[in-house]
Design a protein that fits this description.
By secondary structure, this protein is an alpha+beta fold. Helix content is 39%, strand content 10%. Strands 1-2 form a two-stranded antiparallel ribbon. It has a two-stranded parallel ribbon with strand order 3-4.
């Protein structure tokens, strides 16, 4: 049912999101350059690795030695705007179509984090990762990593079709009304280095 729900919504709203996808792609090409898409390996359901698609938000600026500058210096104002409005994540709808992601689920994080989770935190991979999730509508960047993972695992244990509808509605509402948006939203989150031992 969850997979059918995802596909139904993506197909029904295709005329809207495809036009928006093309418009943002053109803006990224003009404002930042090519490639338009950012691709990165992320762990999905059961830890299976897939290639996440996002719009590019950073330049390829390098120092005198040819090394890439840090993220803060490569993130453009336009890229910051894309991140703050979550428009950079529109291409992930293609990941949903391919069955690698769901509309709702724990956000897919870095592959490097896989061996840093506690066994309980690793349960977030028991479902497909999502474009949005329970943690994203309950604090987003204001939450600590541990708080986010607790919400992710709660979702794994309690997800229903109606909960997905609620999360999608809250996501749209908060993005449009700029509710619970912090000054740091749009900035890369701090690195997860593992939870402290009890």
């Amino acid at each position: 049912m969850k997979r059918a729900f995802d596909l139904a919504l993506v197909v029904v709203f295709a005329p809207i999101w495809i036009l928006l996808l093309l418009a943002v792609a053109l803006l990224v090409r003009c404002r930042i350059g090519s490639p338009v898409l950012f691709r990165q390996r992320r762990p999905g359901k059961d830890g299976a690795i897939f290639v996440l698609l996002k719009f590019r938000t950073m330049t390829d600026a390098r120092d005198a030695s040819g090394r890439l500058l840090d993220d803060a210096h490569r993130l453009t104002p336009f890229g910051h705007c894309l991140r703050a409005t979550s428009l950079d994540e529109l291409p992930e709808l293609l990941n949903v179509l391919r069955g690698e992601m769901s509309l709702v689920g724990p956000r897919p994080l870095l592959v490097e984090y896989l061996d840093r989770y506690t066994p309980e935190q690793a349960r977030r991979h028991e479902v497909r990762p999502g474009l949005t999730g329970w943690a994203q509508v309950n604090g987003r960047n204001a939450l600590s990593w541990e708080e986010k993972f607790k919400l992710d695992v709660w979702y794994v244990d309690n997800h229903t079709l109606w909960l997905d509808v609620k999360i999608l509605w809250l996501t749209v509402k908060r993005v449009l009304l700029r509710e619970d948006i912090n000054a740091d939203d749009g900035e890369p989150p701090s690195e997860f280095r593992g939870s402290p031992l009890p």
